[in-house]
From TrEMBL:
Mitochondrial intermembrane chaperone that participates in the import and insertion of some multi-pass transmembrane proteins into the mitochondrial inner membrane. Also required for the transfer of beta-barrel precursors from the TOM complex to the sorting and assembly machinery (SAM complex) of the outer membrane. Acts as a chaperone-like protein that protects the hydrophobic precursors from aggregation and guide them through the mitochondrial intermembrane space. GO terms for molecular function: metal ion binding. This is Mitochondrial import inner membrane translocase subunit. SUPFAM superfamilies: Tim10-like. It comes from Owenia fusiformis.
Length: 103
């Protein structure tokens, strides 16, 4: 087909495919990390409460930290562009957060 990149993906969908690949890569890394940290007993098929709790906490912490880093990254770029005089759309207000990276 004309206009298709190698692999059969139309150019209009190429960015979405790259984003999905990045998502899957991050998901796999997170899963492996939390599994290695939390699952230690392979003598039974049952997941222990402590393993389940550890896995849940690990994933929640990762998601919160990732969201906070992303927010800070956006704020940094907003300030950099503002300093260079590049016009931008207003940033949406985020609720104040407490914890590791709270204000």
């Amino acid at each position: 087909m004309a206009g298709m990149v190698p692999g059969g993906v139309p150019p209009s969908d190429e960015q979405a495919v790259l984003q999905f690949k990045e998502f899957l890569s991050n998901y796999n890394k997170l899963t492996e990390h939390c599994f290695k940290d939390c699952v230690h007993d392979f003598t039974t098929r049952k997941i222990h409460d402590s393993e389940n709790s550890c896995s849940t906490n690990c994933m929640e912490k990762y998601m919160k930290v990732t969201a906070r880093i992303s927010q800070r990254f956006q704020e940094y770029h907003f300030m950099q562009n503002e300093a260079q005089g590049i016009p931008q759309a207003p940033q949406p207000q985020q609720p104040a957060q407490s914890g590791w990276f709270g204000r």
